[in-house]
Amino acid sequence: MRRRWRALLGGVMLLTGCLLTACSSEAPPAVTKPLVEEPDDQGQTITINPPVAPKLGDPNAKYIVQTRIADFHLINSNEGFVWGVTRNEFRLYYTHDGGETWNNISPSENVQFQDKLEYGKDISFSDSHHGWVVRQNLEKTATVILRTADGGQSWDVSALPNGEHVSSIQYVNPMTGWIMAYVDLNEQDQQKLLYHTTNGGATWKKVAQSSSMVSQESGSGLPDQGSLAGMGFSYSNQGFVAINLDSSVKLYRSSNQGKIWTPVANRMQGCPQAKAEAQQSLKGNSSSYWVPVLCYGDHGTQYNGLFTADAGTRWNSMSLGLSSSSKSILPGRTFLNEKEGWIINQNGMSRTLDGGKTWTSLSGNRVLASKLKDYPRAVKLRFASSSVGWLLLERLDDKKSLLLKTTDGGVNWRIL
């Protein structure tokens, strides 16, 4: 497997040096020592395709590896990615056959990571060939962006100009993408900065920032108050952001590539304390999204959703008809479109075909029920079609995870 390790490592060193030493003649050493040492994660065993001609000692020559899968992304029913961070090394794998076998497309181990990476925050793919990985701003290091245009065979590097923390990343095509970054002002508020690229992430231009509290620049309409929950853009450069502010969800939209933002009413009723989670895209339309919302009240937590079909211009608020008596119980929820969705909790899997008004319990084989006892936390649930879906479970006591797949709409599941 061909990778430009020397170019990548040299790029990271140069970018880090330029940002920290104003490109002085004495280059700083590369960041190779991990900030956090973790034990080996004994996660799921997956079959790795070896390189065409493996060399003696090549770690990619291994046919079987064990890794704790932290997140995944489904492109379609057959193609997808899984990844994790072990001993501060980012490990990324791609499948073209529905998870039967995997290709190791990890970037260089010299670019080290401290935290696990989340899709939409640290990782974005526009297709199976074009992907981007954010190495967040660590102490005395830059916010580095790794990018590939050949499915992970090689990786290039760039960086944000000022090294802010990234809260959301999205690419709508191989050339066009957005990054929302932030600087913490206090425990509740963040200065928000939006960057845009039109050359696949090689360079980034700041197009908007919130400015009412910390800058004399003219504002973009985004508030410093509150924290960003999610961001989404369509192919036509319309976009939205969801912000958690004062126990409520505030929505903003832009129709000019993120330069100016205006508030949008969400008409969410009967929710005294609301908190939005990261948005999920809906299949079939680049302008369609939904934002999961937790509604806290005296009698527990209700699970709602905000749905848009026009990249945030108009929103429909829906109660999913689900509730729990504890704030700590967060069931996995996903929608394929505005009507068809799934949810998983301690009782198993349920499906809706009417936007959450009614739910039908899916009772199939015993694999899911037995695995939920061993892996009680649902990390992520996504469907690529009405039939094919993936579910990631984990248990925190020994850092183990398990990835399952269904091909009959969630009735039966098997371990990948």
TrEMBL record:
Q: Which ranges carry the Photosynthesis system II assembly factor Ycf48/Hcf136-like domain? A: 121-211
Question: Cross-referenced PROSITE patterns, in alphabetical order?
Answer: PROKAR_LIPOPROTEIN (PS51257)
Q: Which domain of life is it from?
A: Bacteria
PANTHER family, from UniProt?
A: PHOTOSYSTEM II STABILITY/ASSEMBLY FACTOR HCF136, CHLOROPLASTIC, PHOTOSYSTEM II STABILITY_ASSEMBLY FACTOR HCF136, CHLOROPLASTIC
Record's protein name: WD40/YVTN/BNR-like repeat-containing protein
Q: Does the keyword Metal-binding apply?
A: no
Keywords attached to this Swiss-Prot or TrEMBL record, sorted alphabetically, are: Photosynthesis, Photosystem II, Signal
| InterPro entries reported in the protein's UniProt record | BNR_rpt (IPR002860), PSII_CF48-like_dom (IPR028203), WD40/YVTN_repeat-like_dom_sf (IPR015943)
What is the annotated signal peptide range for this record?
1-27
